[in-house]
């Protein structure tokens, strides 16, 4: 299997500031998208509108043609969520698809240094640029819906009432984004100060420096009033514990110097 | 004091899908921005570029002219972060400012229902549309830098080496966004299924339904190798505990029917 594939560097995706934090590695970028619960999707305003459109959406990387593709191989991004009439019309009407920009950002820690200017965050962020088209084929749409549901809780799809009926299939809109370029940015490690501050004892003696780890935690699942399954299923229980612990470990690891 | 001010509804900010979740309340929208660690900022592509630009940035609501203004009063959004050369040039060169769209999304829970189509998330999201100009006045810039630093950890500014020196002031770029329109969207409560599924015992008897609370947690602060302040200061310690507990409570409250 081919590993360490990289996205091509072009004007729109080349990381300029702090470029040593930049990455073009497909696997690293896809992983950030797949572990971020909500993505932000931007597209150019149409007509006289001055403001770019920007929507929170749910999405996942995958390849319908090569469903066994590894996370580090070329993948499309499948989006679901508030697909506005405008977004659908623009995506449907354009032959190549609607140009969209997709961002995912995870905060791993607050980096507290001697002076505000060198404060930072530990984070992992990814930005994709690609062309979005509505998924029309029923089998691809079903496949993407399953993938998106299982991104929220692994195995959830098979543990619900499936398959969706005709009305559900036609009311659900999925966009497939063919990625053109992408980049990631990762900051990890300790605060870094300048010598001008580090050699002044009245500063180092009074300003606490370090990292506050930040991570997404899952609480004890709360059954709904109508729930009739008394025992919380293992696939939910174990995922909730595993995800919280995994996120916590990632935040602690990110605080260490790379 | 005037309360419950609302943003005007215009084409670009009117919530269409699930419009009962929409809000135009200034206080609610500003609060979402102020409690989201990383914002996403989009602006239209210049020239031949097909893709909207989209950047993670740090930002906070505030009024330099009326610094005591309440969260529910008209405020500007001050942005700091990776201000690209392009973003700065566009913001500086346009008389009205660069049209930017700013989004903040907080996930409060995973909402698990009988069928994938009615799955949802509890969330609070806000989108602002406004015009960005670089802050040129030194006193306004200093004021905004303090506000942005204290958004990360309250009182952090006064507990670091301040004020920034000349080199630090000129290397820091702050954008002031004059908000034109805005909207928020809030989903809370239990899963909601359709009668067609709720009345089938083979479904209700096998699918667990409920809410998995999700919240941002802060871990034990980790001192840097160079840190010389032995005792973790109270303003950090108490904030970390308070913020985690506050976020957790919000996620639990969001799981209740409104």
Summarize the helices and strands and which ones pair or pack.
The structure is a homodimer of 258-residue chains.
Chain A (H helix, E strand, L loop, with lengths): L21 E2 L2 H9 L4 E5 L9 E10 L13 E6 L3 H9 L4 E15 L7 E15 L3 H15 L13 H6 L3 E13 L7 H4 L2 H4 L5 E9 L3 E2 L10 H21 L4
Antiparallel strand pairs in A: 1-7, 2-3, 2-5, 3-4, 4-7, 5-6, 5-8, 6-7
Strand-residue fraction of chain A? 25-35%
Discrete helix count of chain A: 7
The CATH architecture term of chain A is Roll
Low-confidence stretches of chain A: none
**How many separate domains of chain A?**
1
CATH topology of chain A: Pnp Oxidase, Chain A
How much helix, percentage-wise, in residues of chain A?
25-40%
Q: What would you call the shape of chain A? A: globular
Organism (chains A, B): Cyphellophora europaea (strain CBS 101466)
Protein name (chains A, B): Flavin-nucleotide-binding protein
